[in-house]
Amino acid sequence: MEQNEVIRSLAALAHDLRLQVFRMLVVAGPAGMTPGAISEQLDVPGATLSFHLKELMNARLVTQERDGRHLIYRAAFDHMDAVLGFLTANCCQGQPCLETSATSCQC
Fold first, then answer.
1. Is position 101 within any domain?
2. What helix, strand, coil percent values describe the chain, rounded to 5?
3. What is the pLDDT of residues 12-64, one digit of tens each?
4. Which residues are CB-neighbours of 78 under 8 A, at least 6 positions away?
5. In total, how many domains does the chain have?
6. Contact at 8 Å (CB) between 92 and 105?
7. Alpha-carbon span 5 to 71, nearest angstrom
8. Any idea where the HTH arsR-type domain is (predicted)?
9. 28 within a domain of the structure (yes/no)
10. What is the pTM of this model?
């Protein structure tokens, strides 16, 4: 993964609402969520949510799929894993890290 991609992803997540949306989609898993469900749970106007979903898509953190009349948004887990991998590459100067979770690196 290129450093510029990581910067774009982290910049997209550096906004409160986008971070909330992304975390909500991570929790939803492969089933994803419709914009209406996201908007309702976060009490955010549809136009505002649309803008932020577009930003998350441009950062490759979220995917969109049409299901009949509905759009389904999902967290892009492969991209999220690549960002985490970039951030933790060579963690602890190459020494094995404690295995407390799949996404953390503790020296």
1. no
2. 60, 15, 25
3. 999 999 999 999 999 999 999 999 999 999 999 999 999 999 999 999 999 99
4. none
5. 1
6. yes
7. 25
8. 1-95
9. yes
10. 0.85
Sequence-separated (6 or more) residues with CB below 8 Å from residue 82: 1, 5
CATH number at residue 8: 1.10.10.10
DSSP alpha helix (H) spans, 14-103: 16-28, 35-42, 46-58, 77-88
The total number of residues written for the chain in this structure = 107
Residues 6+ apart with CB under 8 A from 17: 42, 44, 48, 49, 52
Q: What are phi and psi of 80, to 5 degrees?
A: -60, -45
Domain that holds residue 13: 3-94
| Residue 99 covered by a domain | no
Q: Which two tokens stand for residue 107?
A: 């020296």
Query: What does the CA dihedral 44, 46, 51, 53 come to, rounded to 10 degrees?
Result: 80
